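Try it yourself: sequence plus zinc ion, in.
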Amino acid sequence: MDELDKWFSGLFGKNSDSKNQNFKSPAKTNFPQNNRQQPKQVFSKQQSAQKSVPAKTGSPQQDDKQQPSHPANKSHHGEHRPQGQQRSQGHHQGQHPHGQQHPHGQHPHGQQHAKRAQHGRGQHFKRQSHPAKQTAQPAPQPKPTPIIKGKVKIIPLGGLDEVGKNMMLVEYENDIIIIDMGLEFPSEDLLGIDYVIPDITYLENNRHRIRGVVITHGHLDHIGGIPYILPKLDFPPVYGTKLTIGLITKRCEEFNQQKTAKLHTINPDVPIRLGNFLINFFRVNHSIPDAVGIVVDTPIGKIIDTGDFKFDATPPRNQAPADLAKIEKLGEQNVLALFCESTNALKPGHSASEAKVGEVLDSIIGKTKGRIIIASFSSQIGRIQIIIDSAIKNNRKVYVGGRSMRENIDIAMRLGYIDAKKGYIHDLRQYKKNPDHESLILTTGSQGEAVSALSRIANGEHPHLQVKKGDTIILSSSPIVGNERAIHTVINKLSLLGADVIHNDLMDVHTSGHGKQDELARMISYIKPEYLVPIHGEYYMRMGLAKLAMEKCGIPESNIIMLKNGDVLLGERGRIYKSDEVAETKYILIDGSGEGKVGSQVQMDREIMSQNGALVVLLYVSRKGKNITRDPDVVTRGFIYMHESEEITQEIIRIAVDAYKRIREKNPGANRKDIKKYVRQTIDRFTHERLERRPLIIPLIIEG
Ligand SMILES: [Zn+2]
Ligand SMILES: [Zn+2]
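Structure, out:
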């Protein structure tokens, strides 16, 4: 253990030892030992914490403003999540991404979190991460960036090198507008982190210049950052279409900001003026209704952000087609720069119409004799309308499961984006004895999310619905990269229960919300911009758009600008170019209780450890054969008092051994890194579910 202690000391800093104050060992009475029957809640703390923060203008976290900077850590991105969707329920929109309420009072940290939120989480981070800078200095005042006369400045703060957290600012002298304010769901190596939002240091420093926030559409990768960011910018007015504002309103309510947030519904046909900018809109099609592209008229020329789009000649009812005439007209107006989304830039052809998907779904619903269960994204309002129409036509009542699905249907019905004959839409919680052939269940969980209604149904844990032979289950979605395994598990379980499962590999029960090459080329050719800036996507997707624009639309290479988050573009009449200035783009990580700026993995590890402690599992395996030779050792710091919880240690040992064996059995080719990752995740799940703690978990494999 000596070596290990030394190693621990290295991790924690010189003064670390088992009594290190950084670790708040929970009193043993805090263990929710009997908590297993409670609803499993992966991301829960923040809602309660956030709700406990009195909403007022001027953030309670203002002391967080001028954090020392750290090198950006870009290593967290491994995954591509098209459409900005993610593996946990509810990325897509509107709803609180967590699905369920946390059982308040059961949470060992509830109080602590609430308190921290009130005192400003940033302080907490500073204290933990920068012991050298603890001296009580007054928070530095914002330093406005010098005004560049006569030039437009454009800075993407997020949305490049990733799919998620879209946000861009356009500045002209004393005026700034912001386009979109998204969040991103982190990759798995960010243990204990729930979301990532864009770095807004630049905006905080220039907050007095902000004239407004304009939103393209209501997906979380475009609106999810709003409740976190607005308070830090003194609540600038937010503008969006009717449904978009409806969804934002819902989110702001969850954060108690309904009175302070200034939300304005725009009519896409009526321009708005924000400072020096005149803003026009054009309707586009997307996988959520009411999406628009944004035209910013600046004193030096027009700048356009397409938002997410596709062209669908036959969109679902209650949705307008894209404003093709308006878009074509922009081609005659000397557009200086087009910021165009790139999600499907590598996919040839044209995206399928939502109407096509509707036909397929309608024919399945019409032919099926037994009960039907359909899982889709809760933001697929148009698709939901199609399903409801088909259900009613076939005399089936629709039972809605999953909180986000219920909430979004409610918002959409109130705002006129879904309509249905009275008496046909019900809450799944009221589902009892309706005949199978007259029932259609509509639910979330198409990504295999652990906390979703569909997963509970597949696990036989849903209180109102048991799957049986004769049921038909449709996953009207496509797997997002990284979710495949979870989805396959759900499909497998449902099949085992006797259901007939239909997914996109079998029939066309889904279409993308992002235009493919034909549509992207059309957009660029209509608008005929002087410059093209590919946005919304990983580098390779954006490169795909650049290539397409050169080959199909005649945009010269010299006029295509590839950017990184934080790059600063300067524009003057007839020309835009990259400047030497770079805006900060650190990762702003939101975990259960608030947020902090995290510049490096080390810092983050320390942060996780400081809150939840650390747990090292030493797995002893034979050099040959790599079989477990003896029981693993478990060493913890700041996690639990091990001698008081022999039972938990034993359980962790058993789980570690099982996980090790399982991964080697399932995937004989797994390398050390894969094995460790799997062991870590398995233990993480256990500690989180059982103890509601997320320590830093470090599996070590020792051969000998
Ligand atoms: Zn998006
Ligand atoms: Zn979108």
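One thing you can check immediately is this: The domain at 1-23+613-704 is CATH 3.10.20.580 (Ubiquitin-like (UB roll)).
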